[in-house]
Specification:
CATH superfamily: endopeptidase domain like (from Nostoc punctiforme)
CATH architecture: Alpha-Beta Complex
Helix content: 25-40%
Radius of gyration: 17 Å
């Protein structure tokens, strides 16, 4: 276990400088087994339940963090299943409930290209990468999903539901990150998050970085 943890930290250092990830390392060390589950023990699974289960499957399979531009099929294209980045956790989780972000974002960008960020000098949509970029996902969910609070506290705790999508600013050179809110909660009611930063895992990192987006999709 110690060897595995050291290898995980080494992978994190390869992704971002140490000081940018200090809260991740500290948080993962204090993360314990989640204390409670919000999902009902009986009855049919909701769409949100299925989103969480699909994200958790990626964490259990140990999907590694492998960034980079990859040419993929369209629609339904994906990078190798044992690889991906933070946005792929969300793409795969939503596909498990019948929503293909690759197709949805591409079609929305074709119809409303000016509504999307131009950070990469794009002149037209690109089905290989558009849906895998954090700013594009955030734009799509603002337009087509439900935008929710970015504050977690006693008054807003009930607004954080399993299956919600959360986005952070890591606080270093504009690096952004995202994950799926879990159905498990730590002390104080803070939900765990399933995310991929140096490897897909489920842990208590909701408050580790500045929250810049909180969405629910599909809209209830």
């Amino acid at each position: 276990m110690r060897h595995f943890r050291n290898l995980t930290l080494l992978l994190l250092l390869l992704v971002l400088p140490w000081w940018a990830l200090r809260s991740t390392v500290w948080t993962s060390r204090r993360t314990a087994t989640p204390s409670s589950s919000l999902r009902r023990p009986h009855g049919p699974l909701s769409v949100a339940d299925k989103i969480v289960l699909a994200a958790r499957k990626q964490a259990k399979e140990g999907t590694s963090y492998v960034p980079g531009y990859v040419v993929i099929d369209y629609p339904g294209g994906d990078v190798p299943g044992d690889q991906g980045v933070c946005t792929d956790v969300i793409v795969r989780s939503l596909r498990a409930v019948g929503y293909d972000l690759q197709k949805l974002i591409h079609e929305d960008m074709k119809a409303h290209f000016n509504a999307y960020p131009r950070h990469w000098g794009l002149r037209r949509p690109d089905t290989n990468i558009d849906h895998r970029r954090v700013p594009n996902q955030m734009t799509f969910f603002r337009r087509r999903g439900r935008t929710l609070t970015t504050v977690f506290g006693r008054r807003t705790q009930s607004q954080w539901k399993a299956g919600d999508l959360v986005y952070w600013d890591l606080g270093y050179k504009g690096f952004l990150h995202c994950g799926v809110v879990s159905d498990k909660r730590e002390g104080g009611g803070v939900p765990s998050v399933i995310h991929n930063l140096g490897g897909c895992r489920e842990e208590s990192v909701l408050l580790a970085w500045k929250i810049i987006g909180h969405y629910r999709y599909p809209v209830e």
